[in-house]
Amino acid sequence: MKKFSLTALASIAMALSVQAQEVTFEEYDLDNGLHVILHQDNSAPVVTTSVMYHVGGKDRTEGRTGFAHFFEHLLFEGTKNIERGKWFQIVSSNGGKNNANTSQDRTYYYEVFPSNNLELGLWLESERMLHPVIDQTGIDTQKEVVKEEKRLRYDNSPYGSFLMVLGKNLFEKHPYKDPNIGYMEDLDAGTLEDVVAYNEKYYVPNNAVLVVAGDIEINETKKMIKDYFGPIPKGAAVVRNYPLEDPITEQKVATAYDANIQIPATGTAYRIPGFKERDAYVLDMISTYLSDGKSSKLYKKLVDEEKKALQVGAFNIPQEDYGMYLVFALPVGETSLESLQSGIEEEVAKVRNELISENDYQKLQNKFENNFVNSNSSVEGIASSLATNYLLYGDTSLINKEIDIYRSITREEIKEVANKYLKPNQSVLINYLPGEKTEF
Description:
Elements: H1 2-20, E1 26-29, E2 35-40, E3 46-53, H2 67-74, H3 87-93, E4 97-102, E5 107-114, H4 118-130, H5 136-155, H6 162-170, H7 184-189, H8 192-202, E6 208-214, H9 218-229, E7 252-258, E8 265-273, H10 278-291, H11 297-305, E9 309-317, E10 322-331, H12 337-353, H13 358-375, H14 379-391, H15 398-408, H16 411-421, E11 427-434
Parallel strand pairs: 2-6, 7-11
Antiparallel strand pairs: 1-2, 3-5, 3-6, 4-5, 8-10, 8-11, 9-10
C-alpha cells in the first residue's frame, strides 16, 4: 500500500507540474505581414526580444550555398543608425546579451535585457530588418569570419565533417545535401548584388515572427511594436519548391577521411519525414529508447556488455522537409566497424520486429513528461519555442500541447514506424576513417 501511495503522489505531482507550466500568449499580425507573439511573465525583471526569419541553409541557388549562415554574421555589422562594430557594445553596455543561430530551415536573432530596456531591444531588431548596411566592406569582413569558423568547427575539428558526409549521402536533389555553412568557393563567388538581393527576398516582415517574452505590459508593448515595425515595407511572398527525393531502396556505403582523428567511426543513417509529421515524434521516442542514458539498449549492449564501443548514440536530426536519423558509434581497440554496424542493426531490428516492454514504454513516457516540464523553464527558452512552433510547425499552441502527441504514441506505433523507416535497405552506412581529409 505504501508503494502505491508513493507512486500515486509522484503521478499527481507530475500532473500538477505539467498543468502549472502552461504558457499563455497572445498573437496577431501587423499590416506588413509580421507575425507577433507576446508572452507576459512579470516574475522577474527580464525581457527577451527575438525575431526568427524563415530562411536557412536550404534557401539558396546552386553555386550560392551558405548565404543564410553568412547573413547571421553580416546583420550584426551595423545599420544606418548603428555604427559598424557597435552592436554588441550597445547591448552589453545596457545590461543585455544577444546571439543568433542558423539551421537549414531558419535564422534566429535575440536579445535578453532588463525589462526597462524593452524598447532598446525592439529598436535593435527593427533596425536589423529595416536599415541594415550591406556593403563590400562588411561582406569582406564577414567572409573571413565565416571561413575561420569553418576551419575551426569543421575542417580542423575531430569528426567535424561527419554531418556533411551524412547530408551528402542521404540527399541527392534537395538542398539539404549541402552543409548549412556552405562551400567557401560559393561564398567567395557571391557578389554585392547577390547579397543585397538575398536580403530583400528573405529578411522581410512577412517572412518572420517577432516574439517578446517576459516582464512586459501588453498594451504598451503593442504600441512600441507598431511604432518600430509597422512602417517596415512588406516583401514579396517567398515561394519554395524544392525537389523531392527518390526513396532509398538499396543500402549505400559511404567512406570519408578525417586527418584530425585517430579512432574511426561508423554511422548508420536513414532519411525520415520532416519534423511536423507524427512519425517524426515517434522516431524521437525510438532514439531515446535506443541511446538515452546508460540503461538504453545500445549503450548496454555495445558499451557495457560486449565492450565493443567507446560511444554509441541514436539521433533524430529534425529538419522541415526531411529529417536525418543517425546511429553513431566509436569502436574499442581492434573492434571492426562491421562488428559495430552488425550490433547496431541487431538492436534496431528488435524495435522493428518486437513490441518494446511495458516497463520500457513507461520509462519513455516519464522521460518525455520530464523533458516537457523542463523545456520552458526560462523566458528565453519560451521565446524560442513560441517562434519555432509558429514559424516552422504552423501551430504556436504546440508549446502547451506537444506532450499530448508523445502521450498518444503506443508501443504498436513504435514498432510500426521503426519498420517503416529503419530498415537496412533504406540506410546509408558511413565509414569515417583517419586519413587525408575528404574535402567538402
